Amino acid sequence: xxxxxxxxxxxxAGGQNLPFARAVEADGxxxxxxxxxxxxxxxxxxxxxxxxxxxxxxxIAILEEAGYGLEHVVRCGVWLDDPRDFxxxxxxxxxxxxxxxxxxxxxxxxxxxxxxxxIDCIAYKxx
Length: 127
Hints:
This protein starts with a strand and ends with a strand. Strands 1-2-3-8-6-7 form a 6-stranded mixed sheet, covered by helices on one side. A two-stranded antiparallel sheet has the order 4-5. Helix 1 (48-65) runs parallel beside helix 2. The protein has helices spanning 48-65, 86-97; strands at 3-6, 23-26, 29-35, 38-39, 42-43, 73-80, 103-108, 117-124. The chain contains 2 helices and 8 strands. The protein is of the alpha+beta class.
């Protein structure tokens, strides 16, 4: 089995090197690390709608870098800082995944950085 690490050299907030890859591919499976509304190493956007758009765009950028697309996503994990944001989050999420949404878990959690949402995913594309 071959394993490919994508983006292990990238840095996070404050230019710190992070001890994980943005994604790892193994035999057609792509595991994308949790993404937040980060741009140039800083969290941007004040509201859940704006942060959700940027978070999903960050997921899409990693998928595309690895040669995958949203159509290959089979599962997402979602963490929301505030459960009152659930319905607003869902509206944005649906606009990206449309009529073929992946399996998903969504929970409330205290975030490690000052953001409102974090999303990871697993994608599959036959090798």
